[in-house]
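Entry 12.
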Amino acid sequence: MFLACLFLSVGMALAQTKVTGTVVSQDDGQPVIGASVLVVGTNTGTVTNADGQFSLTVPAGKKTLRISYVGMEPIEVSARANMRIMLTSDQKALDEVIVVAFG
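Predicted 3D structure (tokens):
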């Protein structure tokens, strides 16, 4: 019984894939800080750090990542190791910004 549980747990661990990468802006090549990186079809996700880097464990059978950030066009890409993802700015989304301040 113990060996059966051991083999099942090892199988589950091997079924997941570790994905890393960097998200940068296509306009200036600077890292995008705080971009959302989600595995499509799951609730698994993360955000990029101060260098635009992320690390994520992708479940078996899921291979598509959705990357989004405010003011940038969202993109869907296939998950792989050492990714470099470039986001383009969304000029239409930035035209409608209204700032309200209460004193």
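Annotation: Residues 22 and 53 are 4 Å apart (CA to CA). The first strand starts at residue 17 and ends at 25.
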